[in-house]
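Could you please review the protein record set out just below?
***
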Amino acid sequence: MKARIAFFLVVAIGIGSLPMSSQRQTDSKEPLTFDVASVKPKAPDERGGIVHQPPGGQSYEAIGAPLRTIMTVAYTVTDRQISGGPEWIDSERWNIEAKADRRGTSDELHAALARLLEDRFQLKIRHETRELPVYILTVDKKGPKMPVHDAADLLHEPIGGDGRGGLTGQNVTMNYFAFFLSRMMDLNVVDRTNLSEHYDVNFHFVRDFGRGPGDGKGPGDGGPPPVLPDGPDIYTALREQLGLQLQKGKGPVDYLVIEHVERPSAN
């Protein structure tokens, strides 16, 4: 299968958070919970499509987002990793405002959001691990080229794009970066860089919907590559600008199977 880069999800949904176990942890033994939480259907005339952590490290907000999309953020999975559930988890949109009584890491806020969904939507899921074709993210032989983020700066800006192939992010772990790339690619990306620092990433590439890494072919017909704007494809940009590379392989992919879900009661 050729690589296909799907931008619509990452552009529409702001994700200022990191996958489980990738973020710096606090010393608190008590799990973070949202003491104040509102879950309401979106008004018909209200704009939406955002799930993010507002500044302050104490809250989560969703504006007009489907439950499936909120789940991808809470459980840090791609849309294709969620199966089951009724049609309304995709079609009906929700507003969520949730705040805890203390600051937490992005991991803790993720877990709190997941618990909120499980409570308000009576959501029950089953995890399945499948060994599947993936892209493996490794360090190029010349080494990483990303600046290490100041450890004292706890700001976690979401990785964002300009709609033309430019992507930037601050305080990014490689585990999260692999997750972000997974949202853009046709296969999940598994982090095997062994890089443990937090980095600032800034790179630009040309969207090539036809080629895989090193293909040099057109989309599926063995013909010449299509005419593209000037600039590197994502594989070349990762290698030349960030010192990373993607290679096809096999790896574990976590799947969520929805066993039960209900619309929340009025609150």
The longest helix spans residues 106-120. The first strand starts at residue 36 and ends at 41.
